Amino acid sequence: MSPTTNSNVVFEDVSKFYGEVLGVNRVNLSLPPGVTSLVGPNGSGKTTLMNLVTGLVRPTQGCVSVLGLTPDEPEEFFRHVGYCTQFDSFPKGVTGFEFINQSLRLRGLTGNEAARLTAEAIDRVTMGEAAHRRVAGYSKGMRQRIRLAQAIAHHPTVLVLDEPLNGLDPMARAESINLFEALGKQGLHVIISSHVLHEVDKISDQVVLMSYGYVVAEGQIHGVRTEVKEHPMQILVRCAHPGLLASRLFSHDHVVEAKLNNDGKGVLVRTKDADMFYQLLNKIVVEEDFAVDTVAPNDDDVNSVYQYLIGNGGGTV
């Protein structure tokens, strides 16, 4: 099957069990190009999902395809997939350059082509000065970057990154985030699992929220936030008379809480229905000539949604 048949990473009713232990259950996803963040508590099924994408494990039920390809067509499939796991393991005595070069030679590349791609990948992760040093002498962040270089060296179409920001210093972290964002804009599928959520939030085109091996919600982050309906949304309204506004708002059923912000210059509102809240606020502004400076969701990001899941998630691989 040609990779042009389907340009997405597709899960069709996919379940994976490890004996009696649930990995993921009844997953249906179609991930388009761009940066997709997998979000959820430890053990929510993120790693199982990534292992399924990369063909390291096969589903117990259902089908996973990458650009229309499956691991049943291994040569073509693995040419399109790059995987940077969170496991830190290297052959004894190898240098960073040798680690990447050898992996490319195993793919059947000539010596010159493998050397060229190795140097290019090392340059992209700014590891040129350490390329010919032994990996055993690298810091954790340096080992992380050389594994990222190995994952991108063969120019994959789908790049899967399990906790890729672990151990990186602030400069290396910023450079890596810029690289992920650039790859997503180039049309690659960049699938990231990370706990550095405020940074992942900046570059994510879509998120997949996971808990107990199930996909809780998926899509663009602002749309996903509205799907977590059992948790009232927080909205910060800045205005000249916050106390007066709080009293107007609190009499409405959909407003769970309306309290003065810590700086005394606004009202932090928790509402069960954001649409009704915005309609109410517009009505107050128009009918009472009430001056409002700014209105903004206070928890409309990946980190907030993740925190909601923390209380419910866990327990799977």
Topology:
Layout: E1 9-18, E2 21-31, E3 34-39, H1 46-53, E4 61-66, H2 74-79, E5 81-84, H3 96-106, H4 111-124, H5 140-152, E6 158-162, H6 170-185, E7 189-193, H7 197-203, E8 206-211, E9 214-219, H8 221-227, E10 233-239, H9 242-249, E11 255-260, E12 266-271, H10 274-287, E13 292-297, H11 302-310
Parallel strand pairs: 3-7, 3-8, 5-6, 6-7
Antiparallel strand pairs: 1-2, 1-4, 8-9, 10-12, 10-13, 11-12
CATH superfamily placement of the largest domain: P-loop containing nucleotide triphosphate hydrolases
Strand count, sense and barrel status of the largest sheet are: 6 strands, mixed
Binned, the helix content reads 25-40%
Strand content: 25-35%
How big is the Rg? 23 Å
What does this structure look like?
- It is a single chain.
- This protein has two domains: 9-225, P-loop containing nucleotide triphosphate hydrolases (Rossmann fold, 3-Layer(aba) Sandwich), CATH 3.40.50.300; 232-298, 2-Layer Sandwich (Alpha-Beta Plaits), CATH 3.30.70.
- Helices cover 36% and strands 26% of the residues.
- The chain is built from eleven helices and 13 strands.
- It has helices at 46-53, 74-79, 96-106, 111-124, 140-152, 170-185, 197-203, 221-227, 242-249, 274-287, 302-310, and strands at 9-18, 21-31, 34-39, 61-66, 81-84, 158-162, 189-193, 206-211, 214-219, 233-239, 255-260, 266-271, 292-297.
- The strands form three sheets. The protein has a six-stranded mixed β-sheet, sandwiched between helices.
- Helix 3 (96-106) packs across helix 4 (111-124) and helix 3 (96-106) runs parallel beside helix 5.
- The mean pLDDT is 85.
